[in-house]
Structures are given as structure tokens and as C-alpha cells.
């Protein structure tokens, strides 16, 4: 559902005027995606719901300060991410530090072609990822692979998890992610590559495990 109106300026005016229909439509439009992002910072879905609720309250209290230098959606998600970070720090304390210490790197650099190679950065022929099953048994593995993916996504360092979630789960454009997280396009690409590579590596390892 899209928010009705003659554009974002009209929507902001409606929100500032306390238009309940505009608020309800905005909540319906963005809450699912907000929950998905918030869940990356906090340990439970229930806490993510609380973060989103706090964000809507902050929106209503702070809409008069919205200057339009970014889109309303980006401003909304920025507020939500800040709330989620604070809540996540309180709930999980040093969890991210422990994950970084435990997981280390993502994929062995030796699996990629060296600088100067015509296909530098691409997989080496004998070190390419293991193909996923394309058989009836492969469909049976679907739920298991999805569970592994979700588990490994939760293990990623915060920035990688943010970028992968926004790009691959929520379908956001690269430019919007850069604006929202205040990172460069190059940094976004690196974080996305490393996050995807880590998840892919976990899936490969899972498929190699004996039944």
C-alpha cells in the first residue's frame, strides 16, 4: 500500500496537522521493513516491535523538525536505527565484539584471482562455490538452508548485517542504504560483498556436512 496524497510535502503537512489517516497509512507501509531492520540490532522480535513503536512516537513528536534534506523514509529509518542501536547495546552489551572475535574473516582470499589477472577478484576455477542442489532433494533442503541463512545473518558484524538485510531482504537500492547508514558507495559494496560471502560460506559448509 502506498500513502495517499499529492506527494511527500503534502504527507508531511498532514502529519504535522495530526491527520490520523496519514499516520495509519504510513505505519502500514513501513512497519514490516522497519521490523526487519530493527531485528538486526536486538535479540528478539518483541524488542524489535518496541523499537518500532518508539520510532513512531519519535516521528509524531519530531515531525515539526523534519527539514526535507532527505526523504521522509530515510529520516524515519535513521531515527529507528539510532533507537535500535541504543536498545541493542543495552540488551546485548558486548555481543558484537564477541561475534567479531569468534568469526574472524569471511572467505579465504586465496579463492579469488589475484590483482593483475584479467578476471581479478573473481573465483578461481578450482575454488568456486559449491553449486546448490538442483534436485528433488534440493527442495527438501529449502527450509534448512533458509534457517542457516537467517542464523548466519544474525552472526554478521553489525554493519555487514545492516547492509545485507537492507539490500537483500528489504530490497533497498544501494544509494538509499548509503544515505541511511551514512557510508560511501564503495564501503557499501565491500560490506555487502563480505556479508554475502560469509553467509554463502556457511551454506557451502552446511551442504558439505555428512547427512
Automatic annotation (TrEMBL):
<dbReference type="InterPro" id="IPR013325">
    <property type="entry name" value="RNA_pol_sigma_r2"/>
</dbReference>
<keyword id="KW-0805">Transcription regulation</keyword>
<dbReference type="InterPro" id="IPR007627">
    <property type="entry name" value="RNA_pol_sigma70_r2"/>
</dbReference>
<dbReference type="InterPro" id="IPR036388">
    <property type="entry name" value="WH-like_DNA-bd_sf"/>
</dbReference>
<dbReference type="InterPro" id="IPR013324">
    <property type="entry name" value="RNA_pol_sigma_r3/r4-like"/>
</dbReference>
<dbReference type="InterPro" id="IPR039425">
    <property type="entry name" value="RNA_pol_sigma-70-like"/>
</dbReference>
<dbReference type="Pfam" id="PF04542">
    <property type="entry name" value="Sigma70_r2"/>
</dbReference>
<dbReference type="GO" id="GO:0003677">
    <property type="term" value="F:DNA binding"/>
</dbReference>
<protein>
    <submittedName>
        <fullName>RNA polymerase subunit sigma-24</fullName>
    </submittedName>
</protein>
<dbReference type="GO" id="GO:0006352">
    <property type="term" value="P:DNA-templated transcription initiation"/>
</dbReference>
<dbReference type="GO" id="GO:0016987">
    <property type="term" value="F:sigma factor activity"/>
</dbReference>
<feature type="domain" description="RNA polymerase sigma factor 70 region 4 type 2">
    <location>
        <begin position="151"/>
        <end position="198"/>
    </location>
</feature>
<feature type="domain" description="RNA polymerase sigma-70 region 2">
    <location>
        <begin position="26"/>
        <end position="93"/>
    </location>
</feature>
<comment type="similarity">
    <text>Belongs to the sigma-70 factor family. ECF subfamily.</text>
</comment>
<keyword id="KW-0238">DNA-binding</keyword>
<keyword id="KW-0804">Transcription</keyword>
<dbReference type="InterPro" id="IPR014284">
    <property type="entry name" value="RNA_pol_sigma-70_dom"/>
</dbReference>
<dbReference type="InterPro" id="IPR013249">
    <property type="entry name" value="RNA_pol_sigma70_r4_t2"/>
</dbReference>
<keyword id="KW-0731">Sigma factor</keyword>
<dbReference type="Pfam" id="PF08281">
    <property type="entry name" value="Sigma70_r4_2"/>
</dbReference>
Amino acid at each position: 500500500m502506498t500513502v495517499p496524497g499529492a506527494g511527500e510535502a503534502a504527507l508531511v503537512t498532514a502529519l504535522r496537522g495530526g491527520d490520523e489517516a496519514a499516520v495509519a497509512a504510513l505505519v502500514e507501509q513501513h512497519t514490516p521493513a522497519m521490523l526487519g531492520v530493527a531485528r538486526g540490532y536486538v535479540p528478539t522480535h518483541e524488542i524489535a516491535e518496541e523499537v518500532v513503536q518508539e520510532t513512531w512516537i519519535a516521528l509524531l513528536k519530531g515531525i515539526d523538525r523534519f527539514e526535507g534534506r532527505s526523504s521522509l523514509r530515510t529520516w524515519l529509518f535513521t531515527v529507528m536505527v539510532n533507537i535500535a542501536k541504543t536498545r541493542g547495546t543495552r540488551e546485548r552489551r558486548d555481543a558484537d565484539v564477541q561475534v567479531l572475535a569468534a568469526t574472524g574473516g569471511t572467505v579465504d582470499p586465496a579463492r579469488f584471482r589475484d590483482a593483475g589477472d584479467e578476471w581479478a577478484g573473481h573465483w578461481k576455477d578450482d575454488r568456486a562455490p559449491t553449486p546448490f542442489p538442483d534436485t528433488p532433494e534440493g527442495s527438501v533442503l529449502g527450509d534448512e538452508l533458509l534457517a542457516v541463512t537467517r542464523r548466519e545473518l544474525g552472526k554478521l558484524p553489525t554493519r555487514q548485517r545492516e547492509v545485507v538485510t537492507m539490500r537483500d531482504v528489504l530490497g533497498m537500492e544501494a544509494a538509499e542504504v548509503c544515505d541511511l547508514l551514512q557510508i560511501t558507495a564503495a564501503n557499501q559494496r565491500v560490506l555487502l560483498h563480505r556479508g554475502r560471502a560469509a553467509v554463502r560460506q556457511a551454506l557451502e559448509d552446511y551442504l558439505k556436512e555428512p547427512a
